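Each lists chain and fold; for instance:
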Amino acid sequence: MKGCAGVKGLDGEKGSIGPMGPFGPKGDKGTKGEKCVPTPRIAFFVTRTSRFGPVQQDTNIEFDKVFLNEGNSFDEHSSQFVCTVNGTYLFNAHVLSQEDKDAFVTIMLNEQPRIPMHGDHRSGFGVASNTAMFHLTVGDKVYLRLKKDSAISNDSSTFSGYLIHVTD
């Protein structure tokens, strides 16, 4: 015959960790992953070695010194970046006006003005800088255009860009 339940006693001291149990069965082999495709490396950095302007009409800026043209997407003859790989790109433009002329410059995409910049000469030399990010497809062109009656100085005016990531 069983009697009544008694009062619960105090907890005892915690014991040590027991030995590790046996390994479980080996799992099924996973599916093969996709082949790694290296990302294309596209980057450029250019400048001018002489003053340019004042121009009589809106004129594309010609860059005659190439510091970097990885992937050969900067066309040295047209001074335009020509997209060879679909993707998202970042561009930087910096211009310095001449001491007696403003620099009105636009970052262009396929003949369409996208980002305006203005270097005001009233402080001696005016500086203008801007950054643009574009999704480009093969054949798109990005370049800088100097507005009528404006002018830029020499190697303080630069243009650069690079591929951030590839898209379909």
Summary: DSSP finds no helices and eleven strands in the chain. The chain has a mean pLDDT of 92. The chain has one domain: 43-166. Residues 58 and 147 are 4 Å apart (CA to CA).
